[in-house]
Amino acid sequence: RINDMLILLVAGHDTTAYSLAWTLKELARHPAEQDKLRFALLNASEDDRCNLKELTNVIKEGLRLNPVAAAGGLRVCSKDIVVDKHSEGSTPIVIPKGTVIFLSLMMCLHHPDYFDEPDSFSPSRFEVEGKHNDAYMPFSSGPRNCLGQSLAYAEMRTVLARLIAEYEFS
Fold first, then answer.
1. Bigger pLDDT: 121 vs 1
2. Is the pLDDT of residue 138 over 90?
3. Per residue in 110-119, pLDDT tens?
4. d(CA 119, CA 64)
5. pLDDT, tens only, 88-108
6. Cα–Cα distance for residue pair 11/152, rounded to 1 Å
7. Count of C-beta atoms within a 10 Å radius of residue 40
8. Cα 125 from chain centroid?
9. I need a surface site. Which of 40, 74, 95, 154 has the fewest CB within 10 A?
């Protein structure tokens, strides 16, 4: 537990700051998106600002474009995995149990099969359900995902809501 607490205090502080900086940079580069978020924030009560869908979408898009742990992580297959290529005559690929798999989050979060215009800042992409929801995992996924995920989201919601409601970034 001590290691978990140190990770939250040390690693979580810098990584959230980087995520906020990248998201603010994207908003500064896209004034229409910044204005849309500011309008939503100013038309909500202060108590409701941190829970706005527009804010959530901006945070998700900022984390998608600039994930802190872009390299991703390693996992060991706990069972054989069969990857079916879904084309006639193709042979399925078998990844045997015990194989170490590396998943690049940057590649996953920018993959054109899951995200239309993957290099563009478009928070509205999260307004609808779609295949991008399966590929969105800036904190990894599963039981070994980032321990500080909830804290990071809470900090980003609070800080971004306050900054965008009161200041204009350019």
1. 121
2. no
3. 999 999 999 9
4. 10
5. 777 888 999 999 988 888 998
6. 10
7. 19
8. 13
9. 74
Asked if residue 148 lies in contact with residue 15, where contact means CB atoms within 8 angstroms, the answer is yes
The CA-atom distances, in angstroms, between 47 and each of 4, 53, 107 are 30, 14, 36
What is the Cα–Cα distance from 102 to 117, expressed in whole angstroms? 25
Position 87 scores a pLDDT of: 66
Find, among 13, 138, 8, the residue nearest to 68 by Cα: 138
Comparison of pLDDT for 2 and 125, the residue scoring more: 125
pLDDT digits (tens, 9 = 90+) for 64-94: 999 887 777 788 899 999 987 666 777 888 9
Predicted pLDDT at 8: 67
Q: Following DSSP, what letter does each residue of the chain receive, concatenated? A: -HHHHHIIIIIHHHHHHHHHHHHHHHHHH-HHHHHHHHHHHHTS-TTTGGG-HHHHHHHHHHHHHS-TTTT-EEEE-SS-EEE---STTPPPEEE-TT-EEEE-HHHHHT-TTTSSSTTS--GGGGGS--THHHH--BTB-STTS-TTHHHHHHHHHHHHHHHHHH----
